[in-house]
Inverse folding.
């Protein structure tokens, strides 16, 4: 993308990075509490495209639940918009054909999963813990896995497509609940009162010196690389909340400070799933589960493994049956009885009923104003402040004067849209663009050097000016510097970015463009009979993922035609 020339300014941050340590030097004056080192994972579109070109949907579906499985590593690039959900969707669909049959509605109580294929409640595709790591949700091997409510075998590309849908679902809930994602959605089901959980991270946990080989290895990878396999995230989160009895919000902030892919919705809601404030029961695991999916190396090197099980002094706290662990972790709490599943809590072994991704009890369903949008289009500025889920949809209000008539705008690039699919960059390919590192945001979201370097490397592959400071003041100065008539940006889900947009619109005209949606709202290739039979008309029901997926699945798979049998092709 070429850009019209505009005046340079000495306060602009460098556009060349010969040494990644330079980012720390350039941003240190603005981020005095900067911590950590750069991640070995590099940012930028080139690296994202390389990883995207290596995806293997079938291998992913067969091995994703193992730490050494064939996962994609795309989550940091998706989280920051280097790759859009639509781009990854199209890459998957280009390699696979749609499934032989669309999913039927899920019954309230699904049938039990065969013991040889079920390992976790979330393997069934019903819950998606740590959706920020959106392309790795554990599941049973593809050779054995079947839809829990349908007889058709799982299609090789379905696992990846569903993970994209989970991220889209989490983002929709964030739009609906706002800051509510950081608070308990439901009461805990652990038998412990909220006050029983501490709010300070112990030093041995923060430094990875607990003496437990698996936990210390997970902490080292989290802090050192800014990335963890989803299974490791679940184990570590479970240890934090249930063994160490720490508040899930503390763990969520800890992960957010280090993970390259963490955002407010997927990170917090996944921690709530583990804690049981956004699920029907707490998640925990045992040594057998760890060795099944991680191999024997952790336990072979762990001093605690040779000192006995969970009941021994200095022994492995995970070496016990699930019944024994339940009694130790949640004393006095009776095991739940789930129809068709038997007794027990959500554990790393056979699960009970899959946790519902439902709106908290007593809350109404999400209003239409918070449901599917399609674009690109100019959003009315008034819709940026999303109403609470209990409020009716607000009527559309006029955009800021002249916002949709801008002829010479500058573009505001933010951390949710750092790729060429950015709607503002595509709509105005020759206009100057600005990204602003916001020091105030660090008070709310403590991003370490890993995240800042990753973002900086993404920016260096975009035609954008880089600055640091108050985003509104910097953008206003950039408007004057370039002789612009307003600002164009891409819609953000993060409330802080929405607030910046609203502040900016009080000073200059602002046009907000929609990103490419994962689910095309007006897909014409769906057969009318299929749509009617599947109940997929209208807008999605967000009260649980299965309802959302029922709406989304036929629309996504409708983007490609089913493969014809070899005998059906003409010569």
């Amino acid at each position: 993308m070429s850009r019209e020339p505009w005046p340079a300014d000495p306060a602009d941050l460098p556009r060349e990075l010969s040494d990644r340590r330079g980012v720390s030097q350039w941003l240190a004056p603005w981020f005095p509490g900067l911590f950590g080192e750069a991640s070995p994972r590099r940012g930028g579109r080139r690296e994202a495209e390389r990883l995207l070109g290596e995806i293997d949907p079938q291998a992913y579906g067969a091995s994703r639940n193992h730490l050494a499985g064939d996962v994609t590593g795309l989550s940091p690039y998706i989280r920051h918009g280097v790759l859009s959900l639509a781009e990854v969707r199209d890459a998957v669909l280009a390699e696979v054909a749609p499934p032989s049959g669309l999913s039927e509605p899920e019954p309230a109580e699904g049938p039990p999963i065969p013991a040889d294929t079920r390992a976790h409640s979330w393997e069934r595709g019903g819950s998606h813990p740590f959706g920020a790591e959106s392309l790795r949700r554990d599941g049973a091997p593809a050779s054995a896995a079947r839809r829990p409510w349908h007889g058709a075998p799982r299609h090789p590309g379905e696992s990846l497509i569903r993970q994209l849908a989970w991220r889209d679902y989490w983002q929709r809930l964030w739009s609906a609940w706002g800051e509510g994602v950081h608070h308990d959605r439901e009461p805990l089901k652990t038998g412990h009162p909220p006050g029983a959980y501490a709010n300070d991270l112990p030093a041995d946990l923060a430094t990875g010196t607990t003496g437990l080989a698996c936990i210390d290895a997970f902490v080292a990878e989290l802090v050192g690389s800014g990335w963890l396999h989803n299974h490791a995230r679940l184990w570590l989160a479970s240890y934090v909340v249930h063994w160490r009895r720490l508040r899930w919000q503390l763990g969520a902030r800890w992960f957010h400070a280090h993970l390259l892919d963490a955002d407010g919705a997927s990170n917090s809601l996944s921690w709530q799933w583990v804690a049981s404030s956004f699920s029907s029961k707490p998640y925990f695991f045992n040594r057998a589960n760890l060795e099944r999916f991680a191999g024997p190396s952790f336990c072979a090197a762990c001093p605690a493994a040779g000192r006995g099980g969970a009941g021994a002094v200095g022994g492995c706290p995970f070496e016990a049956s699930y019944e024994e662990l339940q009694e130790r972790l949640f004393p006095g709490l009776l095991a739940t009885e789930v129809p068709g599943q038997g007794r027990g809590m959500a554990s790393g072994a056979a699960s009970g009923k899959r946790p519902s991704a439902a709106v908290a009890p007593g809350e109404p369903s999400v209003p239409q104003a918070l449901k599917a949008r399609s674009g690109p289009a100019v959003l009315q500025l008034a819709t940026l402040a999303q109403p609470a889920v209990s409020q009716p949809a607000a009527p559309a209000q006029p955009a800021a004067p002249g916002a949709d008539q801008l002829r010479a705008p500058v573009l505001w690039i933010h951390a949710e849209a750092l790729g060429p699919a950015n709607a503002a960059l595509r709509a105005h390919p020759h206009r100057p663009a600005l990204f602003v590192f916001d020091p105030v945001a660090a008070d709310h979201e403590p991003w370490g050097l890993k995240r800042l370097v990753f973002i900086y490397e993404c920016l260096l592959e975009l035609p954008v000016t880089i600055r640091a400071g108050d985003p509104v003041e910097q953008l206003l100065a950039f408007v004057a510097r370039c002789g612009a008539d307003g600002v164009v940006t891409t819609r953000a889900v993060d409330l802080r970015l929405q607030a910046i947009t609203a502040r900016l619109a009080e000073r200059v005209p602002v046009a907000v463009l929609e990103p490419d949606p994962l689910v095309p709202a007006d897909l014409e290739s769906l057969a009318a009979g299929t749509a009617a039979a599947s109940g997929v008309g209208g807008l999605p029901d967000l009260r649980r993922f299965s309802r959302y997926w029922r709406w989304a699945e036929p629309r996504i798979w409708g983007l490609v035609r089913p493969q014809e049998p070899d005998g059906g092709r003409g010569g």
In short: The mean pLDDT is 77.
